[in-house]
UniProtKB/TrEMBL annotation:
Main location: secreted
Residues spanning the signal sequence: 1-17
Entry keywords, A to Z: Calcium, Glycoprotein, Hydrolase, Metal-binding, Protease, Secreted, Serine protease, Signal, Virulence, Zymogen
GO function term, MF aspect, one: serine-type endopeptidase activity
Record function comment: Secreted tripeptidyl-peptidase which degrades proteins at acidic pHs and is involved in virulence.
Cellular localization per UniProt: Secreted, Extracellular space
Identification of the protein by name: tripeptidyl-peptidase II
Catalytic activity: Release of an N-terminal tripeptide from a polypeptide
Enzyme Commission no: 3.4.14.10
Length: 684
């Protein structure tokens, strides 16, 4: 194989010979190029000539997404014409520059994201055809994000002078402005990309794979895992002068296998007649009903007001949409006043009410628990598309194409709306293994959640239903064994809700996900609580053994917990009575209680609770019921959601977390006691 350097040397020699009389007086002719893609180092070639003059000028090939430094020549990259310095002329300049551009990679491009290996479980099918269509989103960087944490501390920590003085949309955009899109759009247009649309802090565009491959110095391909297929790449580059303007480009390196936290299709069971009869007699040992929850969490004596201003919301991904008819039947089952919910569609989401085609189990569980516990507080479902395969339309660059990574579009949408148009509590019951989410992407999404928190909105996430982990192998190319934390539950700006089981008393549920993040350091609000666990509730021998699988300096999760499974919750799916559960049930349950706490504060003339964690760790734990029995398990080769063997899983003997006094990585700080929490928040 001939090296790029050798090709460049030959080409320049030929051009110089052709133009010898014009160049004449140049004493040294130097060509600077770079090693083959990906770009790591620069190299130069010198060609000696007669004379005494030497020039050093940058040469641009912007039309091709490349840049070459050529000593002795200046190139006007806008028009791809070569202009020798000191008014020298050169023949065949257009061809000359085009050859330069086609042979050299960009010296001003930097690798922005790169995976060490294709994520575990995925395999390469084929490179995408050059004429295949693709839609991408460029997330423009926000300035001053280094001040986000300190601002959240000021507004969300009880006792601080600014506690509860939440910001509005304009305040957030002023404090954390989005980078200008001018240079980014110019970069796209220089590559002949014309289908461009701005959406909040995103620049969406649609074009062909061929143009994107050249633009990002990459190769997009189709990858498959089971029945899921993605159009992805393992790395991409951007111009170094855009590094401060671009946070990330998606979907690129995020493969993901996002799932509901409950594994509902495997776990939901239709309720037979004799169990239903016992449940009608309020046997909480068989099924968890609304009357059971009122007793368990001490909210039976409180009735919210629909006019207080307190509102609830929940996310629906993976083509899920809650059923109006199922909610109506649920309300009749538990003698609730009739109440519907609103729906907002994001990024091409679809509200499918046809029960023969709809996916609804997760969405139904969310809305039935939010309405069942929090009625009559208004509830909004945010449906964000979608699930691949999807071929985007270049004429609709903002059409549905998140290809199973909806978090970015979802939170950008929320931030684009005024406070008055948003619920103050949002419940999300979805997650990915943290390591399958590129760190750039995870931190971008987490910062967006932090910005949502500044606006007085509480974001709650289910911790997951995989215990310590399921696959338990790294995707960094080493295939090492490790515990598997779940994102977005690991983001410090969410309140992660773990799971319990049994009834009176509750104990830790063995499938409740928890542990320590590998992306986010231990959060300021939990340092004392987590250190107490590490110092007093896990032996030194266990800690030493686990340290090879877990990052004990990372953000600990979950933060709180609620009933998840065994016994199941009684709900309505597809018009029939089912038993279901998981942390996908615990999260909307806890979220509804937070909405009721907001109701109490708003009716007392106070602000909403907003970002909850500083309150929970500093004062709120006193109003929670500590869970000290039970444990979570995992990394044993079995998927806790399906009870089936996981091919190639890492096995970690004796892997488990115990529920202990105080915070622990199974149940967090504990279970809610609504009346105690109500008295606490009204005292602030």
């Amino acid at each position: 194989m001939v090296s790029a350097k050798a090709i460049m040397f030959t080409m320049i020699t030929a051009v110089m010979a052709q133009n010898k009389t014009q160049i004449g007086t140049t004493s040294e002719f130097r060509v600077c190029t770079v090693d083959a893609r990906p770009i790591y180092s620069e190299s130069c070639i010198s060609l000696n000539q007669t004379g005494s003059t030497q020039f050093n000028v940058a040469v641009g090939c912007r039309q091709y997404g490349y840049n070459v430094r050529l000593a002795g020549l200046a190139v006007n990259s806008d028009f791809l014409s070569v202009v020798p310095l000191n008014s020298f002329s050169m023949r065949s300049s257009g061809l000359y520059t085009a050859l330069l551009c086609s042979l050299a990679a960009s010296t001003n491009a930097v690798i922005h994201e790169k995976l060490a290996a294709v994520p575990s479980g995925w395999h390469h099918l084929e490179d995408a055809g050059s004429d295949h269509q693709i839609s991408l989103s460029i997330a423009l960087a926000r300035k001053n994000l280094d001040q986000l944490e300190s601002k959240l501390k000021d507004l969300s920590t009880p006792g601080e002078s600014q506690y509860g003085q939440w910001l509005d949309q304009e305040d957030v955009d002023t404090l954390f402005p989005v980078a200008s899109d001018k240079a980014v759009i110019s970069w796209l247009r220089s590559a002949n990309i014309t289908h461009i649309a701005r959406q909040g802090s995103l620049v969406n565009f649609a074009t062909t794979v061929d143009k994107v491959n050249k633009l990002l110095n990459t190769t997009f391909a189709y990858y498959q895992s089971g029945s899921s297929q993605r159009l992805r790449t393992t790395e991409y580059s951007i111009p170094d002068d855009l590094v401060d303007s671009i946070d990330l480009i998606s979907p690129t390196t995020f493969f993901g296998k996002e799932k509901t936290s409950a594994g509902l299709n495997q776990r939901a069971q239709k309720i037979d007649s004799h169990v239903a009869k016992r449940s009608n007699s309020s046997s909480c040992a068989d099924l968890i009903t609304l009357s059971c929850l009122k007793e368990m969490y001490n909210f039976g004596n409180y009735t919210p007001s629909a006019s207080s201003g307190s509102k609830l919301g929940f996310a629906s991904f993976l083509n899920e949409s809650a059923s109006y008819s199922d909610l109506a039947k649920f309300e009749r089952l538990f003698n609730l006043p009739s109440q519907n919910f609103s729906v907002e569609l994001i990024n091409g989401g679809v509200n499918d009410q046809n029960q023969t085609t709809a996916s609804l189990t997760e969405a139904d569980l969310d809305v039935e628990l939010l309405v069942g516990v929090g009625h009559p507080l208004p509830v909004t479902e945010f449906i964000t598309s979608g699930e691949p395969p999807f071929i985007p339309d270049p004429d609709e660059p903002s059409a549905a194409d998140n290809e199973n990574e909806p978090y970015l579009q979802y939170y950008e949408y929320l931030l684009s709306k005024p406070n008055s148009a948003l619920p103050q509590v949002i419940s999300n019951s979805y997650g990915d293994d943290e390591q399958t989410v590129p760190e750039y992407y995870a931190k971008r999404v987490c910062n967006l959640i932090g910005l949502v928190g500044l606006r007085g909105i509480s974001v709650l996430e289910s911790s997951g239903d995989e215990g310590i982990g399921s696959g338990c192998r790294t995707t960094d190319g080493t295939n090492s064994t490790q515990f598997n934390p779940i994102f977005p539950a690991t983001c410090p700006y969410v309140t992660a809700v773990g799971g319990t089981m049994s009834y009176a008393p509750e104990i830790a549920w063995e499938a409740s996900s928890g542990g320590f993040s590998n992306y986010f350091e231990r959060a300021w609000f939990q340092k004392e609580a987590v250190q107490n666990y590490l110092s007093h509730h896990i032996t030194n021998e266990t800690k030493q053994y686990y340290s090879q699988f877990a990052n004990f300096s990372g953000r600990g999760f979950p933060d709180v917990s609620a009933h998840s499974f065994e016994p199941s919750y009684e709900v309505i799916f597809y018009g029939a009575r089912y038993g279901s559960g998981g942390t996908s049930a615990a999260c909307p349950l806890f979220s509804a209680l937070v909405g009721m706490l907001n109701d109490a504060r708003l009716r007392a003339g106070k602000s909403t609770l907003g970002f909850l964690n500083p309150l929970l760790y500093s004062k709120g734990y006193k109003a929670l019921t500590d869970v000290t029995a039970g444990q979570s398990i995992g990394c044993n080769g079995i998927d806790p959601q399906s009870d089936e063997a996981v091919a190639g899983a890492g096995i970690i003997p004796w892997a488990h977390w115990n529920a202990t006094v105080g915070w622990d990585p199974v149940t967090g700080l504990g279970l809610p006691d609504f009346e105690k929490l109500r008295q606490l928040v009204l005292s602030l």
